[in-house]
Specification:
- About 40% of the residues lie in helices and about 25% in strands.
- By secondary structure, the protein is an alpha/beta fold.
- It has two domains: about 120 residues, Periplasmic binding protein-like II (D-Maltodextrin-Binding Protein, domain 2, 3-Layer(aba) Sandwich), CATH 3.40.190.10; about 110 residues, Periplasmic binding protein-like II (D-Maltodextrin-Binding Protein, domain 2).
- Strands 1, 2, 3, 4, 5, 6, 7, 8, 9 and 10 form a ten-stranded mixed β-sheet that branches.
- The longest helix is centred in the first third of the chain and has 15 residues.
Length: about 230
């Protein structure tokens, strides 16, 4: 075995990438696997995809433990991730202070880039917010939906729309070149999701998976977590 297999929500992609060199230096292992919508990653685990470690929303990790797919004693919280707004690098930042200003900002945009509205944490929340604001029908033809937040942000960066905007988890915005974090959603519409790491029941490299969890959640990695978009 030369790789640690991971199934992870896109929110943790940047953080894992930053810690991968230290992990390899210590264990000799590279990290391989997939990062995407949490619902899709959970279904891959259920279908038998190889995984030593999973990083998903804490609620979903608990559900997978109930299903016998996760070692319950290995579950460790990493931190919360906010759903936020993004714009292309160089575009004016969009600042929203309440539901009304968020509604106006979305209506003023001619393209809205979001992750999967049925399987991703942020995408599901975006769909709820649009309905809450009463503009889901008004902006339906402006939505640009992609499999995960990272892909949505890459397409936002390349967009030739006049005033595009993105909405996904802050970690995916921070980790994408060509877009910048424009601000969190207002209190009435905010979402901060706890993410957790755990060892898969069918892991081939259980000790190494546990070591990666220790690196992800260590005091030494606190600054890395913060820069990646995780909050305590």
């Amino acid at each position: 075995m030369t790789t640690l297999n991971i199934l992870s929500g896109g929110a943790a992609h940047g953080l894992v990438g930053k810690l991968a060199p230290a992990f390899k230096a210590e264990t000799g292992l590279d990290i391989a696997g997939e990062f995407g919508a949490v619902g899709v990653m959970a279904d891959k685990l259920r279908a038998g995809a190889p995984a030593d470690i999973v990083i998903l929303t804490a609620a979903l990790v608990t559900r997978l433990a109930d299903e016998g797919l996760i070692l319950r004693g290995s579950i460790t919280d990493i931190g919360r991730v906010e759903t936020a707004l993004a714009v292309r690098t160089g575009d004016p930042l969009v600042k929203v202070t309440d539901a009304a200003s968020l509604r106006n900002a979305l209506l003023a945009s001619d393209a809205i880039f979001v992750p999967d509205t049925k399987a991703s944490t942020a995408g599901i929340h975006v769909a709820k917010v649009l309905a809450q604001l009463g503009i889901d029908n008004d902006v339906a033809d402006r939505l640009r939906v992609f499999p995960n937040g990272a892909t949505a942000m890459r397409h936002l960066a390349e967009s030739d729309a006049r005033r595009p905007i993105g909405c996904t988890q802050s970690t995916e915005i921070i980790n994408t070149e060509g877009v910048v974090l424009s601000g969190a959603l207002p209190p009435e519409c905010e979402l901060a999701t706890m993410y957790a790491a755990a060892v898969a029941t069918r892991a081939s490299l259980t000790p190494q998976a546990q070591r990666m969890i220790t690196l992800l959640t260590s005091t030494d990695a606190r600054e890395l977590r913060s820069r990646a978009g995780f909050v305590a």
